[in-house]
Amino acid sequence: MPAMTTRTETSWSVAPEPFDSPAAAALWRAYYTEVSDRWYLLHEGHATDPAELEREIAAGTGAELAPPTGVLLLARYDGEPAGTVGVRLLMREGTSVAGTGELKRMFVRKEMRGKGGGSVLLEAAEEAARGLGVERLVLDTRNDLVEARAMYARHGYVEIERYNDEEYAEHWFAKGLVG
């Protein structure tokens, strides 16, 4: 994969990061804790069981977001880790789907929201996807993640038919990256 230039916008910078770096691991933990707790609170009235949380965080290594078939980007705000997004080639039965990539782990820490970081990360993810040869980017999300769905729509993503069997996915989006 060609080297990606670091992007800077106001106080934000985005650059590739190893999926297993301390900063990436801390943001994965924050991301998973938030989306899991949000689901459990909405559907079952309590936060995620701590043992389940630890199992699932440990199981999600992020290795699929490593070159040559993926990339994890880490956003910093004034130098502090503030968010991540991953892009990987979409695979079906062990084979990549021609020209299609998938957006994963889009996350900005709660205290950093409202500062434009989501848009900065999404634009950097699209650039990274092009670097992987991706012409179409897809993603899945849930009903309760209304802020994310609104952001994707603002950036030209449109709802599509289901493309995966993710247990918690309720909405699927796509955007063409060519043209």
What can you tell me about this protein's structure?
By secondary structure, this protein is α+β, with helices and mostly antiparallel strands. The protein has one domain (7-137): 3-Layer(aba) Sandwich (Aminopeptidase). It is built from four helices and eight strands, in the order ββααβββαβαββ. It has helices spanning 22-44, 50-59, 117-131, 146-154, and strands at 7-9, 12-16, 70-77, 80-92, 95-108, 136-141, 158-160, 171-176. An eight-stranded mixed sheet has the order 1-2-3-4-5-6-8-7, sandwiched between helices. β1 and β2 (12-16) form a beta hairpin. The model has no long low-confidence stretch (mean pLDDT 91). GO terms for molecular function: acyltransferase activity, transferring groups other than amino-acyl groups. Keywords: Acyltransferase, Transferase. This is N-acetyltransferase.
